Amino acid sequence: MTEEFHKPTLFSSPKFEAFEGGTDPAQISRVAHETAEALLARVRGNPDAEVVERLVAFTDEHGIDAIAELWARSSPRSLPGALWRIYLIRALIRQDPESISFLFQRGSEMVPTIDHVVAGASTPTGPTEITTLADEILRGLFQGDFAIALDRAAAFCRLTASGATSLADDLEVINPERATTLTKQALRLSQTASELAACSLLWRSGSLD
């Protein structure tokens, strides 16, 4: 990608899955894993509430590109890959809480699973509630059960993907371009849900690195 990011960072749907990285994959991977492990060990070892809140709001001040430089190129089934996806989900929600909350609520009403319970969003889920959910999930990585935080994020992604698919079906005739965008968004969210669920299993087995 060649676009420059600015603060606050806004990104279109394709940027949800692709960020520019460095030129040395081995070095990028090493730095990504070292920084993720060091950060998590330090904060979870001494979960000071003020430090946690600064980490939750880090991208509000520094932009999502600051996190992307560290972790965006990491394997989706790795510790830095998991952290990156949670931060990216939060950024996506905060960029457009109205649209995301609508898709999440629609998915929650359509899908007969316990995903809404797992995600832990208040009902009904409006912009304020979905923004709160994003912060709670990220906060849970640092001072709660890491695997549960990943499960909550995966559930959010599945429900939002279902809502996007449903809305795409409704718009297919009257607004095919918007329908295509929503379908692509649903696919990316579904893939992210699978990746986060896999990371949760790896964390529980002690093999997420």
Describe this structure in words.
- Keywords: DNA-directed RNA polymerase, Transcription.
- This protein is an all-alpha fold and 209 residues long.
- The protein has one domain (24-204).
- 72% of the residues lie in helices and 0% in strands.
- Helix 9 (146-171) packs antiparallel against helix 10.
- The longest helix has 29 residues, at 176-204.
- The two termini are 27 Å apart.
Proportion of residues in β-strands: under 5%
Separation of termini?
27 Å
Helix and strand string, N-terminal first?
HHHHHHHHHH
**Rounded Rg:** 17 Å
Are there runs of 5+ residues with pLDDT below 50, and where? 1-22
What would the principal axes of the Cα set say about the shape? globular
Mean pLDDT level: 89
Structural class by SSE content:
mainly alpha
Helical amount among residues, as a percent range?
Answer: over 70%
Overall tally of structural domains? 1
Please outline the helices and strands:
Layout (H helix, E strand, L loop, with lengths): L24 H21 L3 H8 L1 H5 L1 H8 L7 H17 L1 H14 L4 H5 L7 H17 L2 H26 L4 H29 L5
Helix pairs in contact: 2-8, 4-5, 5-6, 5-8, 6-8, 6-9, 8-9, 9-10
